[in-house]
Design brief:
Blueprint: H1 3-18, H2 24-40, H3 45-61, H4 70-85, E1 100-105, H5 112-126, E2 131-135, H6 141-154, E3 157-159, H7 167-180, E4 185-189, H8 198-211, E5 215-221, H9 225-239, E6 243-247, H10 256-265, E7 269-273, E8 281-283, H11 286-294
Parallel strand pairs: 1-4, 1-5, 2-3, 2-4, 5-6, 6-7
Antiparallel strand pairs: 7-8
Helix pairs in contact: 1-2, 2-3, 3-4, 4-11, 5-6, 7-8, 9-10
This protein binds guanosine-5'-diphosphate (GDP).
Guanosine-5'-diphosphate binds next to helix 5.
Length: about 300
């Protein structure tokens, strides 16, 4: 995960760690390398620039050159700033409501169905919740089948209406069904498209208005970097979602989406997907991720 970024940051700090006496030039050089590492990770130019400017100001403020170990202090400043960039705090999901309704949004292939299953499994095993999964992709029968397979894997009931082409009706019926069968969490998996389009946005927005979810989650493939950030912006403009789910981090060597998304949409990353298996889900902790990136 984020190996390229970790390697480049490690190299950036090499300059500072190797010198007996650290000069202003060394610090400036390190920050230049840090900025380059962020840009290579597909972090937006403005964010990368602000990042290094902030670290620089803090380094000056803390008189980095006169400290015992300037290299270590610089690593700490960068780590703190990475944590802030990724949201600072760990933010959980809101499980209020009877039942709690969780709406999944995102493009096709982002990992929505897989994550819906992972979240159902997580809530069932960690939070002892009774979960209902709802298939709302009325265009692709294969998508409903996939959700059924996932539901079976995690031992969670899947609600679908194969003959009904109205996702708003299906969602509302599913919530009624959940109440009637004693479920306290309803996870609605919606239809995605390959790119943002008006029809998809209208549909998800209609479902959102009708079911008034406690949590609207935006699922995105972290490997898509700046595209992930742009897609997040488009969905957030319509849904004002509550959190981001970054999937496929296991294959992401760069980390640009993880580093940029919070500052662009101002919504926390809540969970990450780290593999295809139902157990490959983790709560996102910005500080632990920053530790991991810096090794
Ligand atoms: P959807 O169209 O948004 O519902 O996406 P899917 O859930 O069908 O996922 C698309 C593909 O990504 C599938 O092959 C999944 O197995 C795969 N996938 C989903 N999440 C992850 C993840 O965290 N890591 C990896 N490696 N693959 C994932």
């Amino acid at each position: 995960m984020f190996n390229n970024l970790s390697d480049k940051l490690d190299k950036a700090f090499h300059v500072l760690k190797g010198h007996g006496k650290i000069t202003e030039v060394n610090v400036a050089e390190t920050l230049k390398e840090v900025r380059r590492a962020l840009l290579d990770a597909d972090v937006n130019f403005k964010i990368a620039k602000n990042f290094t400017n902030t670290v620089k100001e803090k380094a000056i403020g803390q008189d980095v050159l006169t400290t015992l170990n300037p290299g270590q202090l610089m690593v700490k400043l960068v780590k703190d700033e990475l944590t802030t960039l990724m949201g600072g705090e760990t933010v959980g999901i809101n499980l209020s409501g009877t039942p709690t309704v969780i709406l999944m949004s995102g493009l096709q292939g982002s990992g929505k169905t897989t994550f819906s299953g992972k979240l159902a499994n997580y809530l069932k095993t960690k939070k002892t919740k009774q979960v209902l999964l709802v298939g709302c992709d009325v265009y692709r029968p294969a998508a409903i089948n996939q959700l059924k397979v996932v539901g079976e894997q995690v031992g969670v009931e899947v609600y679908a209406e194969e003959e009904n082409k109205n996702p708003v009706e299906i969602s509302l019926n599913a919530i009624k069904h959940a109440k009637a069968t004693g479920k306290n969490v309803v996870i609605i998996d919606t239809a995605g498209r390959l790119a943002v389009d008006a029809e998809m946005m209208t549909e998800i927005s209609n479902i959102h208005k009708a079911v008034n979810p406690q949590e609207t989650l935006f699922v995105v493939d972290s490997m898509t970097g700046q595209d992930a950030v742009n897609t997040a912006k488009a969905f957030n403009d319509i849904l004002n979602f509550d959190g981001v789910i970054l999937t496929k981090l296991d294959g992401d060597t760069r980390g640009g989406a993880a580093l940029s998304i919070k500052s662009v949409v101002n919504k926390p990353i809540k969970f990450i997907g780290t593999g295809e298996k139902m157990e490959a889900i983790d709560v996102f902790h910005p500080d632990r991720m920053a530790d991991r990136i810096l090794g």
